UniProtKB/TrEMBL annotation:
Alphabetized InterPro entries for the sequence: Fimb_usher
UniProt GO cellular component terms: cell outer membrane
Protein name: Outer membrane fimbrial usher protein
Origin superkingdom: Bacteria
Organism: Salmonella enterica subsp. indica
GO biological process, one term: pilus assembly
Transmembrane stretches, start-end: none
UniProt GO MF annotations: fimbrial usher porin activity
Name of encoding gene: sbbC_3
């Protein structure tokens, strides 16, 4: 991926703001890459982050980033991470973001389905194809889900 470098000058409410942004991504292997991004403006704000992305399998990926954020009066270390996985029971995601002395954020999500019948119950992937549910209506109730 080629490096990205851009700058801009904008004026808002009689305040001038000049910004520069740099992004660089390097493949580490067929499943990994390392990236660096930096943003700096004329008001003294700066944010820079180095991130490792990894995809150990077709069903799992994760990233871990560390960086620094600075403005006029404060400076802090930034840590963020994310993991996503697909299982027979659904898709899960967990993410963490922390900026020292300012905030900590943890997010968890699950995308899947739960079906219960008189024969049992199970978690499973969502049935994304609407046609499957529609076809059962016209065929009658011959399957094991009835």
């Amino acid at each position: 991926m080629p490096p990205c470098l851009w700058g801009r000058n904008r004026s808002l409410l009689n305040e001038q703001d000049n910004q520069v942004y740099l992004s660089l991504t390097l493949p580490w292997s067929s499943q990994r890459q390392v990236s660096y991004s930096m943003q700096h403006d004329s008001n003294g704000r700066m944010n820079q982050t180095a991130t490792l992305y990894n995809r150990p399998s077709d069903k799992t990926s994760w990233s871990l980033g560390v960086g620094q954020q600075r403005d006029d009066s404060q400076e802090g270390m930034l840590l963020n991470g994310n993991i996503q996985t697909i299982t027979p029971y659904g898709q899960g995601n967990a993410n963490l973001s922390m900026l020292s002395q300012q905030y900590k954020n943890l997010g968890l999500s699950w995308y899947g389905s739960f079906t219960a019948t008189r024969y049992g119950a199970a978690f499973h992937q969502n049935m994304a194809e609407k046609r499957a549910a529609t076809d059962d209506r016209y065929r009658g109730c011959g399957g094991s889900a009835c």
